[in-house]
Amino acid sequence: MADSRQRTLGFASCALASALWGCGFYFGKIALDEMSVGAMVFYRFCFACVVLLPVLVTHKPGLNRREWWVLMAASFFGVPLQFLCQFYGLSLTSVAHALLMLGMLPVLLAVAAAVWAHERMDAIGWVALAASTGGAVLIALGAGPSLAGHRVDQASLAGDLVVILSLVISLVWILLNKQLMEKHSAIVVTAYGLFAGTAMLGAILLGSAAIPGGWGLPPVHRVSAAAWGSLAVSGVLCTAVTTLLWNWGLTKVPASQAGILLNMEPLIGSLLGVFALGEVLGPRAWVGGGLILLAAVTLTMHSKTVIRVNLE
Q: Phi and psi at residue 253, in whole multiples of 5°?
């Protein structure tokens, strides 16, 4: 009974994290109207670090040398690399398109977890993967027409592809964190990982400031209250809280099973993009999104895997 309750809480934690992640695209789009991608991501993680600062005092990391290297690698993939790619892609496409593209992540995560655990997918799994890929193509090519009184859906193939790249990068972050949390608490991995990733991101921004055409230093003046508010909300709720919830949930349920709950992210984000920002999706994009979600549900709920054990 206790194990069943912990499993339920794990799924609920991952579902809530994914729903809050979906809101991050909406708030990020507001901040992007006043600053570069690099500055927006940096401020978002700075707000997250402020919330998690007490953890550095109350929790000792307890990592050995190898685990520190794993944490540094996960931090690099999970913070500067993933988010700079993700929000650069968002700057080239619409919120609704970017979030629907994220519907590929549950399938990708299930496949990556299977490979990581030396599992073999059945035929249903491969069919689901093919359907998800087809859905992504429909979304990338299915920009909706402009409608009177609505914001035009500024979708682009380049933006969609960059978002997909960020998904692949996020898989590395998820699986490395999963490995660390086999021996260490979720709060330690979350807090120290976000602090390390934010420091790396700051170093990248400082370096880009010296390059002509680079992002430059994050602006402080002439930033509206709405932008600061969106950054604070995305940092606290959509970064610190979500990462902690997701990492804790992964300690209770397998990554491949938790992956289906990531579908809450494109669902919530797309609804915000359409109803709050007035974006419009064409029929092919909606069909593509449905294919991705259906493929994710099929893979994670009906597909079976066989674990190959190496006896040598």
A: -135, 155
Residue 150's SS3 state is coil
Q: In a 3-state reduction of DSSP, which class is residue 241?
A: helix
Distances (CA, A) of 79 to 83, 139, 165, 174: 6, 26, 14, 12
Q: What is the residue-averaged pLDDT of the chain?
A: 79
pLDDT tens-digit map of 246-284? 999 888 877 777 776 676 776 676 667 677 767 666 787
Pair of tokens at residue 77: 């993939």
Is the model's pLDDT at 303 over the cut of 60? no
Q: Are the CB atoms for 111 and 281 separated by under 8 Å?
A: no
Determine the residue type at 109.
L
Give the highest mean pLDDT range of 13-17, 66-70, 176-180, 252-256.
66-70
Q: Residue 149 and residue 44: Cα distance in Å, rounded?
A: 31
User: How many Å apart are CA 228 and CA 81, to the nearest integer?
Assistant: 23
**Any alpha helices (H) in the chain, and if so which ranges?**
2-32, 37-58, 65-76, 82-92, 95-101, 105-116, 123-141, 157-180, 186-209, 225-235, 242-250, 255-258, 264-275, 283-301
| 132 C-beta neighbours (distance < 10 Å), count | 25
Q: What is the pTM of this model?
A: 0.78
